[in-house]
Write a structure and sequence with these properties.
Strand order of the largest sheet: 3-2-1-4-5-6
Order of helices and strands: HHHHEHEEHEHEEHHEHEEE
Number of strands: 10
Strand content: 15-25%
Radius of gyration: 32 Å
Number of domains: 3
Largest sheet: 6 strands, parallel
Oligomer: single chain
Shape: elongated
Number of helices: 10
Helix content: 40-55%
CATH class of the largest domain: Alpha Beta
């Protein structure tokens, strides 16, 4: 939106100065009295005596009024009309971005998804969907929304896919499996034509649809609902697995794995309590416990004892 406002302002200034250059050449009377006199002559209907009797600053007032009546008001009226009719006067593109993510489809929780990409990998994001703009802003990344068109290749060119890290294709809301398959195949062909090395990831509602998309052009297929159901089952069976899973899958730079004797203050705690304690006070992630010759990873009811060793992830 801010980029469009800048373009509107630049367009208006260009029209304004073009008008200033052209007005002196309207007729001899305008040339004789100059630009402002010529404009005022039009406003005052050739009453030159009235014009000459005006203070000089009023000449400029007349000039500004004339410009507003001739150019500014119709220009902004056209903008309002275009907005009302759903017409985009300025084409949004991401040709200035490098190593960004391109998303083609619908993301239910777009803000959480975007924050995860930005926080973990500092990626700029281009979304090709039905949205005209992102409903939020992030300080550390640029978010570009492109309204999809029937021309997939043109959409990907605007998204600068030749310089993107990956393309994620997801279903739109209420999109039938047949429509999704057709759109996906079109997108894959267009993306590979523009950038043969682009990494393509496909999100599927259900794994039963996976066979429809078996192709060497897709690097990864994510049956999201199956993964969510599996994770829910593991959470119910194994208390504490969710925070462990969230931490272990959060990428960070410069981390190493250490094995150390258990601190005295952790003796008597269960595994989950120790995990939270180490995260909060030592900025470390507890991976497992070594007792004698056995290693326990995310044990259910294991209480830490003196003599245990713990596996930790923290900055090296």
């Amino acid at each position: 939106m801010r980029l469009e406002i800048i373009r509107v302002a630049l367009t208006f200034l260009t029209l304004f100065f073009l008008a200033a250059l052209l007005f002196p050449f309207l007729d001899m009377e305008t040339k004789r009295y100059g630009l402002v006199h010529g404009v005022l002559r039009i406003l005052f209907e050739d009453d030159l005596d009235s014009i000459k009797s005006l203070p000089h600053f009023l000449y400029w007032c007349g000039f500004i009024l004339k410009m507003a009546a001739t150019y500014t008001i119709p220009f902004f009226a056209a903008l309002v009309l275009a907005k009302f009719m759903g017409i985009r006067l300025f084409e949004v593109n991401a040709k200035h971005l490098q190593n960004h993510a391109v998303i083609f489809g619908h993301i239910p929780d777009l803000e959480t998804f975007a924050k995860e990409l930005v926080q973990s990998r500092s990626l700029d994001i281009v979304l090709i969907s039905t949205l005209e703009e992102f409903p939020f802003e992030l300080l550390d990344a640029e978010l570009v929304a492109i309204v999809q068109s029937p021309n997939r290749e043109k959409d990907f060119q605007r998204a600068n896919i030749t310089h993107a890290q990956f393309l994620l294709i997801t279903p739109f809301e209420d999109e039938s499996p047949q429509d999704f398959k057709g759109r996906t195949m079109e997108a894959i062909l267009a993306a590979k034509k523009l950038c043969p090395d682009i990494r393509i990831v496909l999100e599927l509602p259900q794994s039963k649809e996976k066979d429809l998309f078996i192709t060497s052009e897709i690097e990864e297929i994510l049956p999201i609902q199956d993964y969510i159901s599996s994770l829910e089952g593991k959470i119910l069976q194994t208390p504490g697995i969710l925070p462990f899973f969230m931490e272990i899958t959060s990428p960070s730079q410069g981390n190493s794995i250490f094995i150390e004797p258990i601190p005295k203050e952790l003796v008597g705690m269960d595994f989950f309590e120790a995990l939270l304690e180490l995260k909060e006070k030592a900025n470390s992630l507890l991976l497992g416990v070594k007792r004698n010759e056995k290693i326990f990873t995310n044990p259910n009811q294991l209480f830490l004892e003196a003599g245990d060793q713990i596996f930790l992830i923290r900055e090296g």
